[in-house]
Amino acid sequence: KNIAACSIMVVIIIINLTAVINGILWPSDDWTKWWTGYGVCDVEVLLRFPITMALATSLCCLSKGLADALDTDRAVFNPSKKQRRRKMIGDVLFCWLVPVMQMALHYTVQAGRYMIIPVWGCADQLDNSWPMLVIIIGWCPIFQLLTVYYAAQMLIRLYRHRRSISAALTTTGSGLAPRKFIKLVLISLLLIIIYLPVQTVFVFYAIPHTLVPYSWSRIHNPATWSPILFIHTGTQPSLQWTGWAGVTMSAMMFAFFGFNDDAVDTYRGILVKCGAGRVWPR
């Protein structure tokens, strides 16, 4: 099983579900009609950065897996059950260890309960101290560089084996058919081309201009931590468009995998169960 690709799909589903919910709850700048977001926002702010991080780690893991699929020098033609289990556990840890760690340590750098922004919805408030950089921000550039490295390896090996991709995939024991491999390569490259520049800008603006000394008592002072901030679109107009990133990625995934034979058979089966077979018989 391709843990990285499945993780990317899970992340995109969560991002889109969040975007739909928040767009319905906070569709305009009319603060008088806004719900304060109790409960929903408490969960969302805990997931915001870790889910973004999970997309970065999963994309990196996907690029690594595609590069390894063409690594004939370290090929394992028929991996044992133990080796397959070890690889699956390694991929799960690669994709989710850092995001889970961020969720566990999030409260230590959470400077306020949350903010609410039109359309975008719940937004996090993080402290401008060095632990925030270590726990939240610092991991993104690391996995960005790793993704570029594995993508370069993948392209070099793809060029090297361009006339014998099927044989190379068989030799390495990847279990990938050439057609599926090429689809994953195209998805990986498109996500890198679109995602990396956006993520680079995100990291650039997320880094505070000045760092303040870390203080637990200052961050979690009840007088300043509990109030919920309402942000107007005029203050941060670009955030209302951020939710479209998940929609774009979903369209890309559907374009690549939504029309293959298995998908079409699934659609046909659903339509038949709904009674469409009487209208359009085979």
Give the fraction of residues assigned to helices: 55-70%
Spatial shape: globular
Mean pLDDT value: 81
Quote the distance from N terminus to C terminus: 33 Å
> Helical region count?
11
H/E series, N to C?
HHHEEHHHHHHEHH
Please tally the β strands and state the result: 3
Q: Which spans of ≥5 residues are poorly predicted at pLDDT below 50? A: none
Q: Name the beta content range.
A: under 5%
The Rg value, from CA coordinates, equals 22 Å
Characterize the largest beta sheet: strand count, sense, and whether it forms a barrel: 3 strands, mixed
Strand order of the largest sheet: 2-1-3
Structural class: mainly alpha
Structure commentary:
The protein is mainly alpha-helical. Helices cover 64% and strands 3% of the residues. It has eleven helices and three strands; from the N terminus they run αααββααααααβαα. The chain has helices spanning 3-25, 40-69, 81-105, 130-137, 139-160, 165-172, 178-206, 216-219, 222-225, 244-257, 261-273; strands spanning 115-117, 121-123, 229-230. It has a three-stranded mixed sheet with strand order 2-1-3. Helix 1 (3-25) runs antiparallel to helix 2 (40-69), helix 1 (3-25) crosses helix 10 (244-257) and helix 2 (40-69) crosses helix 7 (178-206).
